[in-house]
Design brief:
single chain, 131 residues, alpha/beta, Rossmann fold, five-stranded parallel beta sheet, 5 helices
């Protein structure tokens, strides 16, 4: 039995994450998609087990901390240097600043099929490196 590809998604937009969850559940059975809404919850998940891909919303703000996604990525990447990070955002001004921290920088206003293609390609690349 193949291991499920684990995606952890940190985002403060409930509607968006629910759409993503429905999409992955319906279309990509080999993916375990998990949502967290705060950086504190993400820290706990990352500490327990690193996902295969960590998706982060750049403009993240929550009730418990107001750490924007940009600063959060910069904080965690040194602690987890092997963590693969994908940014989903409708803001592009941080792309150059984050080049050394992330694997992908994707526009948040994407079509689900585009995301499926990106993640499928990422999984294939990971699998090819482990063979």
């Amino acid at each position: 039995m193949n291991k499920k590809f684990h995606i952890l998604h940190l985002d403060d937009t409930l509607d968006f994450t629910k759409k993503m969850e429905a999409y992955f559940t319906a279309k990509m059975a080999d993916i375990f998609y998990e949502i967290v809404f705060t950086t504190d919850d993400a820290d706990k998940k990352l500490h327990n087990k690193l996902p295969d891909l960590f998706i982060v919303d750049l403009m993240l703000h929550d009730e418990h901390d107001a750490t924007p996604g940009v600063e959060y990525i910069k904080k965690i990447k040194p602690e987890y240097p092997d963590l693969k990070i994908m940014v989903l955002s409708d803001r592009t001004e941080f792309k150059d600043e984050l080049d050394n921290y992330i694997e992908f920088y994707e526009d948040k206003a994407f079509r689900p099929s585009d995301l499926q293609n990106k993640i499928s390609q990422f999984i294939e690349n990971i699998n090819n490196k482990t063979l």
